[in-house]
Here is the input.
Amino acid sequence: MDQTLLVVADLAAISVLTFAVYFPRHHRRDLIAAFLGVNVGVLAVAMTLSSSSVGIGLGMGLFGVLSIIRLRSNEIQQHEIAYYFSSLALGLLAGLPEQVNVLSTLLMALIVATLYVGDHPKLFGRYRQRSLRLDAAYTDEDALRAHLEVLLGGRVVNLSVQSVDLVNDMTLVEVRYVVTGAGSRVPQEAGTDHRVERGQEVRA
Here is the structure.
């Protein structure tokens, strides 16, 4: 019963942190699956280790194995990191008990259900993230925001100017927005660097 309450408390805490604190401020959809997957994966493995007879050295070693995930790599997206971690956690949950364990089975189901919800396409499905290279040097954020909303066909909720090149007349910006019209004029690949010239999009 105590463990059940702890699981409920953890799920409530990570839900508040993700949906009530992080997302309203930063509007980055792909990290939702990452936060939920990593949290539930760590919870499941930690509960299994605490309920078995394995030593703390083995537990630290197992979490050392999980550190092979390259969180800073551009070759893997944030939601893919969550799936990667959850896959490792599922393997550990199935491999640690010497016989069928009800707790491990329930935790494995919880991990799968968490990723199903956290990475569901209908969850904040109209939110987008883009990196754009514009053929104009914008020093006025309001003007930049207005231009991006017209270009992307949506409402900009967060933008971060990476660089402004006054010599070559270019602006590099990362923008997060909500699609409100027929859709973006920029292709839908998240996190791709695009160059926009004279009202048309060209990949950089």
User: Anything to note?
Assistant: Residues 31 and 184 are 21 Å apart (CA to CA). Residues 187-193, 197-204 have pLDDT under 50 and may be disordered. The chain has two domains: 2-118, 127-203. The first helix runs from residue 2 to 26.
